[in-house]
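As described in the Methods, two query proteins were run sequentially through the folding procedure within a single session, without resetting any intermediate state between them. The first query and its resulting structure tokens are shown here.
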Amino acid sequence: MTKTTSLPEFATNARGLETGATLIVGLVLLLVLTVVGVSGMNTATMEITMAANTQFQQDAFQQAEDGIDIMIANRMYHPDDDRTLDLLGDPDYDRTAVSTPRDSVSNAFGSSVGEIRAFHWEIVSVGRGPRNAVSTHNQGFYTEGRATN
């Protein structure tokens, strides 16, 4: 006599109970991962753009400072008229500056009356960087010189 084993009833009906729940759960998880990935890429792209804009603003700042430094180093100021530093012509990195005489003070620095004057100057410099970054700087300073009465 051979003993036969019969399968339990739930095992014989297992194929009938499959409804595709695993497929649906897998697709939902894949959708969630896709949304997280796309969101991460958008965030990274925005951060790169923000970093670039900060760098371009720094470039414009340095161009404006350069304009002031050039005007003072080359003594591009005169008591009778405005002096202008020409543009470089570069569309991304450019600067210009204008020196303007403001006023003069006699008897400056405790000097003898009428011999020495203090001349006040103002330089306005505009620097430009990529993506329309602009920085404007004002610099005032004094020089002393002989009075020309």
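Immediately afterward, the second query was submitted; its sequence and tokens are:
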Amino acid sequence: MRGLFLKTAFGGLLLASLAGLRIAAQGNTEAARLQNPVQPSPEAIAAGKQAFTRYCANCHGLNAEGSPGNDLTPAAPDLTDKEWKNGSTDGEIFNSIKNGIGPDFNMGAFTDQLKDEDIWKVVNYVRSLAKK
């Protein structure tokens, strides 16, 4: 009886941990529900590019194609490709910019530097760079 209990408990823990990995790989489901209130107009994209150049290009590069990093700064991902490790919806991108990316926060939060509307404009700009 005890052996059956242990097998069942172990199996349950294994399934729970695998389910947790699946959820983590999909990004932030709460942030994914956020809708971008800023239309991707040419003006909004231009403003997003300006903010990106000021706050993001030093790590992600002027063309947002990432960087290999160095002794002081970790590698920054390519933002023009289809692979987005921290979620690819507008809401998840917004959340990553606003709150940073933990647990080490190699990408810090920009909530003190950028207003929400400006972050949404950066999202629109980054979206405009997607490789076809």
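The CA atoms of residues 52 and 90 lie 15 Å apart. We note this only descriptively and draw no conclusion about the first query from it.
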